[in-house]
Amino acid sequence: xxxxxxxxxxxxxxxxxxxxxxxxxxxxxxxxxxxxxxxxxxxxxxxxxxxxxxxxxxxxxxxxxxxxxxxxxxxxxxxxxxxxxxxxxxxxxxxxxxxxxxxxxxxxxxxxxxxxxxxxxxxxxxxxxxxxxxxxxxxxxxxxxxxxxxxxxxxxxxxxxxxxxxxxxxxxxxxxxxxxxxxxxxxxxxxxxxxxxxxxxxxxxxxxxxxxxxxxxxxxxxxxxxxxxxxxxxxxxxxxxxxxxxxxxxxxxxxxxxxxxxxxxxxxxxxxxxxxxxxxxxxxxxxxxxxxxxxxxxxxxxxxxxxxxxxxxxxxxxxxxxxxxxxxxxxxxxxxxxxxxxxxxxxxxxxxxxxxxxxxxxxxxxxxxxxxxxxxxxxxxxxxxxxxxxxxxxxxxxxxxxxxxxxxxxxxxxxxxxxxxxxxxxxxxxxxxxxxxxxxxxxxxxxxxxxxxxxxxxxxxxxxxxxxxxxxxxxxxxxxxxxxxxxxxxxxxxxxxxxxxxxxxxxxxxxxxxxxxxxxxxxxxxxxxxxxxxxxxxxxxxxxxxxxxxxxxxxxxxxxxxxxxxxxxxxxxxxxxxxxxxxxxxxxxxxxxxxx
Length: 596
Known about the structure:
Elements: E1 5-9, H1 22-33, E2 37-41, H2 46-52, E3 61-64, E4 69-72, E5 77-80, H3 87-95, E6 102-103, E7 108-111, H4 115-125, E8 129-134, E9 137-142, H5 147-158, E10 165-169, H6 175-179, E11 183-186, H7 192-197, E12 200-201, H8 206-219, E13 232-237, E14 252-255, E15 261-265, H9 272-285, E16 290-294, E17 306-308, H10 317-324, E18 331-334, H11 343-361, E19 366-369, H12 372-375, E20 394-398, H13 406-409, E21 414-418, H14 422-433, E22 439-440, E23 448-452, E24 457-463, H15 474-479, E25 488-490, E26 499-501, H16 504-511, H17 516-525, H18 527-536, H19 539-551, H20 556-567, H21 579-585, E27 593-594
Helix pairs in contact: 1-8, 3-4, 18-19, 19-20
């Protein structure tokens, strides 16, 4: 279920003239039994509400006074969420003859046209208060207090994300309230201005409209509703002009934030991490809980996200799940300290438990799987989920689409191909899925190509990058365990050696010990700079190393080592090196120098 909370306005939405219809009550009871939590959000003063409403305990929490008071019906505990009105305000309003005039714990209420007197008093006293309208009612509240702020406190208490909330209302004071939820619905008797901004316009009025919404929740119909304002920005169409607006020319390309299966594919150093980082940054900024399964420590320095695990400690599955109970925490699961052969088993254990957490709490919202061909290899006949929606949305990153489990490939509806030859990645995916390869415009000059699987045409896009440039991969390349096809291999001119450098630290360590013929063989072939450029994606370092290669072998070992140490912090202690283990990992058809 996508939505775990229904947040509902009271007057004009849940009830008509203060009366709750039997059919509406039945619908809410069915929702509650199905596990949907109910929150009532009203502009009424709490005592007034409790005096006219017979079913407060139907709701998990009640937000009253237009966001200023939180009430727990089960425990009968009320809490003010803002300061009460200053006494001088009430004195002046009475002196000015404002009537009717009522006060709650925080709110001061009257009706139009008394709002003009209230505004004048607020201005004269120099108070930081706001006036909010609701179909003739006038509410004076502290600045920043509204239904949206009150709902946010309620959700925080329940440990539920706004991305798992559908809200329904009818009037002016519901604008921010509906916008704060993943989906905002308006009953048929709602104001036209509110309907214009709604994600869903219900066909029935007040309580009957709420019952209509409840049925959509129970049937799963609401899960399939495309809420366009929640889509995540990917890039701009390559053939669009700079002055075309998103609405007029369709420049922006966005991905649905729910139920989406995405694969980012391309060779090493082609921009996979740049694309993934841009999407991840925007998802986290908009409050989506993301889980990154990070086999090689690529995301250990990503801001705004909690990292579990490092080179010396492997995170536990229970530890990961405990942290994810709080929807505001996004998590990187760093597996760099785990041996390569054990990582698929860890993923096989954690993936279904993430799906279970999603079923229970509604989050995580996105699961990002880096090095997907290692964690879900082609030999794996089945995986724990049948749809990307089982974990919210799924993003897989891989060098080799054809090496990913067919069961995982079936979850992909969008392929983002990066690199100089994106058609190669699209062809590999299409072949693995038994789909016809799409055509790609040869004139495209974008950063990437996006293909909706099954369509005839893929389109070239210009990526909207992350706002802050990331220094990713540095820790992995310095001291982590790079994959076989990213590692460097010292073979010598006659291929008598099988020495694998899994990272820059072991490269430097091995470089100091190999014989002159082996070192000079790779130097003359340009293997060092090619490896740094293609596997590390560090064009600057590759260019400097290429200059050393062209200058010849004199002092070349020291010069290349110094160039590496200037850019990367290598461990102080030597890394353990097991030649026997390297021979086991050696690909039979590997070309000299770099992984193929």
